[in-house]
Design brief:
Layout lengths: L6 H46 L3 H4 L3 H23 L8 H6 L8 H48 L2
Helix pairs in contact: 1-3, 1-5, 3-5
């Protein structure tokens, strides 16, 4: 025997699902920002270390390697910052949204579900853009670490 739901129960389920998806997009955005912060901090620290620790006298033989290291670190830092710059997240004022759910207003739940769904789509697109910037930043950081390892082997045999 199949369970049947009333239209009101169905609207409640859809509203719960839409709200959950909306909140997950916000959490995903925060997770991406945290990872971008870690990559930017790591790139900044390594850029500072590579600029100060290696003396210019010992670098003459491997200048091209260190230019590549510093360039890749700087690129990684810029791409991580670019991931922060994507800030097109729609915020829904919960109090105002709940005020629209008066019992006498037919269709208010469906309107709210449609609004949340639209915000979810926009936030998802924004998060995908942030992920692309973050991926580029991580690849540049990995390239700089590889070049730094080659430079250290070459400079300090």
């Amino acid at each position: 025997m199949a369970a049947t739901t009333t239209p009101s129960e169905f609207e409640d389920m859809m509203l719960d699902l839409a709200w959950k998806n909306y909140q997950e997009m916000g959490q995903w955005s925060r997770d991406i920002d945290t990872k971008a912060q870690i990559v930017a901090s790591t790139a900044g620290i390594l850029l500072g270390l590579s600029a100060t620790i290696l003396s210019p006298k010992s670098v003459e033989q491997a200048r091209w390697l260190l230019v590549g290291v510093n360039g890749a670190l700087f690129l990684s830092l810029l791409l991580a910052i670019a991931a922060f710059m994507v800030r097109k997240h729609h915020i829904l004022d919960t109090r105002r949204a709940l005020e629209t759910l008066g019992i006498d207003q037919a269709g208010a739940k469906r309107t709210l579900v449609a609004t949340l769904s639209g915000f979810e789509i926009e936030n998802r697109r924004s998060n995908y853009t942030k992920v692309r910037w973050l991926k580029g930043s991580i690849w540049a950081l990995l390239a700089s670490l590889l070049l730094l390892a080659i430079a250290s082997v070459y400079l300090f045999p």
